[in-house]
Specification:
Blueprint (H helix, E strand, L loop, with lengths): L8 E9 L5 H11 L3 E6 L4 E6 L2 H13 L6 E9 L8 E3 L20 H7 L43 H8 L20 E5 L4 E2 L4 H10 L4 E4 L4 E6 L3 H11 L8 E2 L3 H7 E2 L2 H7 L6 E6 L15 E5 L4 H10 L3 E5 L11 H8 L5 E5 L11 E5 L2 E6 L9 E7 L2 E3 L9 E10 L9 H17 L6 E5 L5 H13 L2 E5 L1 H13 L5 E11 L5 E9 L4 E7 L2 E2 L4 H5 L1 H12 L15 H13 L5 E2 L2 H12 L10 H10 L12 E5 L2 E5 L1 H12 L4 H27 L3 E5 L6 H13 L3 E3 L11 H12 L2
Parallel strand pairs: 2-5, 8-15, 10-13, 12-16, 19-21, 21-22, 23-30, 25-29, 30-31
Antiparallel strand pairs: 1-3, 1-4, 2-3, 6-7, 6-15, 8-9, 9-14, 10-14, 11-12, 12-13, 16-17, 18-20, 19-20, 23-24, 24-25, 26-27, 28-29
Helix pairs in contact: 5-9, 13-22, 15-16, 15-17, 17-18, 18-20, 20-21
Length: 764
């Protein structure tokens, strides 16, 4: 760019999340403030601006563009070049321009802003109690976009013709609804309706009031949200919550709760400043917070847990419903366990009629399914458990320029990832790939991302496990499209994901701890220590291999894991151990035969399974109702003994150049504590101390061999906030720099990010 004093016209290109967030009216106002003429225009690639005036004004204008952008805008890059004077006579906003092959970033859906909230509760406002109120600072985005540029004809609002008043707002650059694509009012916009479970319309004067009365009477209502239907009921009623659990076939897994505001959050949970900031953020996720014992939310919402998942209302409909009901409400995904969330009205009636008593629905279509995001704050940092509404499809910025790659992700907690340029577009949470409905959702969402971001994959990355549905999909697609396939080891992907998340290329000491991952030797890995970067990894240590008696059956029944481990280690089976209440002599004989003959008893080095075994040995959890329940139970127990400093013994032995963590002494000591009636909480705390010490000693040993001082922690085991709390200080006090996840989950929801960076590096 030339010196500021010589500029008479500047051409500006702004890239990032700059469409659908009030950026053009902001530019218009800035141009007026600086007395500049010219134009601004949305394109498929960026926001283009031409401004003409004196050099000092243009310099001030470009400075303000960078520093005063609207709160929801996210400028990724801005270029300014000189041009010859045109002699514009005014500043105007031009029509959007579609450009072949070009793309731009798309805003996630955004929680209701304070200005819109004031309007819906102001009796004098024309949008009083209107449940679809929004502006350029809030409302649906990703869930209604069919294509870019982000203009109304490319959204599901296309069928709603704006009334004169809405049109006037929409066309006024000084109005906060200028080009707010979902803009609507009670006269011209979407409308609510209340229906019975089978679809019959319920006529009533005030739908919100009627729905609130039904909720207070213990009824279950399917509420159409931004990305699909949520199942709502009174969170203070044990009877209502248990009915919902029974109908949804979700016996034990925790349910999220929505409350009206921060004062109510504080009635139920202990909230620190970071958690409050997260709850009130535009993403408005579910936040896992410490649950107060005097809360009147029934413990049936999250049985046995210390933490409760709470969110604030993020749409006008939620605000109206919560205000009218005056109760905390369970708000959980509208699906049967492990199915995709229902998004269309007819689909919801068909799939959810046996769960709900009523539907609170509307006629604005949802284009992309979208679950709620789940987060927690640990060590002062927000961390994802599930990344979806409010965050996806905003990309992870890569520390390199990537080829166009599709990574198909893992079998559980699936996300996929598509890359282009410096961006990794990690999808919203898809779920566990266990049925055809989820696969269909997965394939459709891949198609949407490819369309929005103009990506045509030249490489497909997938997990090494041959039976995973995403692996099979990858192979079929590669065969059909003649695209190169890159298999990626599961735990390497975890570590590469953590590196990409932090913008670090490595190499690092990677600690990858989870439940299940296919190893390069055909065994089930999950307690892995490696040296890794984006391109390769070397496994240097792992938990010793032990038999998983019954394979998948042992995962559902941790007592089988425990017995298999004891048999594998030659530890005698003491029938006084509480886990023996779960099985009879016949099953015990079957387990013994499986282990001795190696029949359906695959070897595993899994840390997740070690947690299961200890939970079973203590009698805490012998059979699980949802994934990781036994490990979660152990974590919850350990909080009861916060001052326990004891730990169990283990050995780190060298075996042919590999360090193997031997577990016999640990399990013998746990059994001794159980038999002498040591409190379960003390055993749980000692076990957590042991795992933290195990991580420290193994990392120190690898550091001594390699001179590496950087450690990346990944895998679902690190969702255990107590383990993170114990491990990080130990590693840091040993002089090691530690990386943890920030932008994607440490669980399998982050795997796809690791897969793309590895696949790209292998092609360099």
């Amino acid at each position: 760019m030339a010196e500021a004093s010589t500029i008479s016209l500047a051409r500006i290109s702004v890239r990032g999340v700059v469409q659908g967030v009030g950026f053009r009216p902001f530019v218009y106002q800035m141009a007026s403030r600086h007395n500049l003429r010219g134009w601004v225009c949305n394109t498929s690639e960026d926001v283009k601006i031409e401004v003409e005036g004196d050099a000092k004004s243009i310099e001030g204008f470009t400075k303000d563009l960078r520093e005063q952008a609207p709160p929801l805008a996210h400028i990724e890059g801005m270029t300014v070049t000189d041009g010859p004077a045109v002699n514009y006579d005014k500043f105007e906003i031009l029509r959007s321009v579609a450009e072949e092959g070009k793309y731009q970033l798309v805003s996630p859906d955004i929680a209701t802003c304070p200005d819109c909230l004031k309007e819906i509760f102001n009796p004098a406002d024309r949008r009083y109690r209107y449940p679809f109120t929004n502006c350029t600072n809030c409302g649906p985005r990703f869930t209604i976009i069919k294509d870019i540029p982000y203009d109304r004809p490319n959204t599901t609002m296309k069928s709603f013709r704006m009334c004169p008043e809405c049109r006037k707002e929409y066309e006024n650059p000084l109005n906060r609804r200028f080009h707010a694509q979902p803009n609507a009012c009670p006269v011209c916009g979407p409308q609510l309706e209340l229906r019975l479970a089978q679809g019959t319309r319920v006529e009533c004067e005030d739908i919100i009031k009627k729905a609130s009365e039904l909720l207070k009477k213990g009824q279950i209502i399917g509420v159409k949200g931004l990305g699909g239907f949520l199942l709502a009921c009174d969170a203070t009623s044990e009877k209502a919550v248990n009915r919902l659990r029974q109908r949804k076939k979700r016996p034990g897994k925790p349910l999220a709760v929505m409350v009206a505001g921060m004062d109510e959050v504080r009635q139920h949970c202990e909230v620190d400043a970071d958690e409050e900031q997260l709850l009130l953020s535009p993403g408005s996720p579910i936040v896992l917070m410490k649950w107060k014992k005097d809360s009147n939310i029934t413990r049936a919402t999250a049985p046995g847990l210390t933490y409760l998942g709470v969110m604030l209302p993020y749409t006008p409909l939620h605000h109206l419903l919560l205000r009218e009901t005056g109760l905390p409400l369970v708000m959980t995904s509208g699906n049967l366990s492990e199915e995709p969330i229902a998004k269309d009205n007819d689909e919801a009636i068909k799939r959810l009629n046996h769960i709900v008593d009523y539907f609170l629905m509307h006629n604005r279509d949802i284009y992309a399914r979208y679950d709620d995001s789940v987060m927690l704050v640990e060590q002062g940092l927000p961390r994802f458990v599930r990344r979806a509404r409010g965050y996806a499809p905003y990309p992870v910025r890569l520390p390199f320029k990537s080829k166009q790659i599709l990574a198909c992700g893992a079998e559980e907690k699936n996300t996929f990832c598509l890359t282009r340029d410096n961006y990794a577009f990690v999808s919203q949470h898809i779920g566990d790939m266990e049925n055809l409905e989820t696969l269909e959702h997965y394939v459709n969402t891949i198609g949407l991302y490819e369309k929005l971001f103009r990506i045509k994959p030249e490489i497909i990355a997938h997990d090494m496990h041959p039976e995973y549905l995403p692996t099979k999909y990858a192979r079929e697609l590669a065969e059909k499209e003649k695209i190169k396939l890159v298999p990626v080891q599961h735990h390497h992907a975890h570590i590469a994901s953590c590196l990409a998340d932090n913008g670090v290329k490595g190499p690092v000491i990677g600690v990858s701890l989870d439940g299940t991952g296919y190893g390069t030797d055909g065994n089930i890995w999950g307690g892995e220590f490696m040296v890794a970067d984006f391109k390769k990894f070397e496994r240097l240590a792992h938990l010793e291999y032990l038999p998983l008696a019954g394979g998948a059956q042992a995962i559902r029944k941790p007592y089988r894991t425990a017995i298999g481990y004891l048999l594998g280690l030659g530890i005698s089976l003491d029938k006084n151990l509480p886990m023996f209440k779960y099985l009879n002599e016949n099953e015990l004989e079957i387990i013994k035969e499986q282990v001795s003959k190696g029949i359906n008893a695959p070897l595993t080095s899994s840390m997740g399974r070690l947690f299961d075994a200890v939970a079973a040995l203590t009698g805490v959890r012998g059979i699980i109702e949802y994934e990781a329940q036994a490990a979660i139970d152990l974590e919850m127990l350990a909080y009861i003994a916060p001052d326990e400093t004891g730990a169990y013994p283990f050995k780190l032995e060298e075996q042919g150049g590999m360090s193997v963590i031997k577990l016999r002494d640990l399990l013998v000591s746990v059994i001794a504590d159980v038999l002498k009636k040591t409190p379960e909480a003390v055993i749980a705390a000692r076990f957590h101390n042991t795992v933290a010490q195990m991580i420290l000693e193994t990392c120190e040993a690898i550091s001594a061999k390699t001179d590496l001082k950087k450690v990346a922690l990944s895998g679902g085991v690190f969702q255990n906030r107590l383990l993170v709390r114990k491990t990080l200080p130990l590693l840091e006090s040993a002089g090691l720099e530690v990386y943890t996840h920030r932008q994607v989950p440490c669980n399998d929801g982050g795997i796809s990010l690791g897969q793309v960076v590895i696949a790209n590096s292998m092609e360099e």
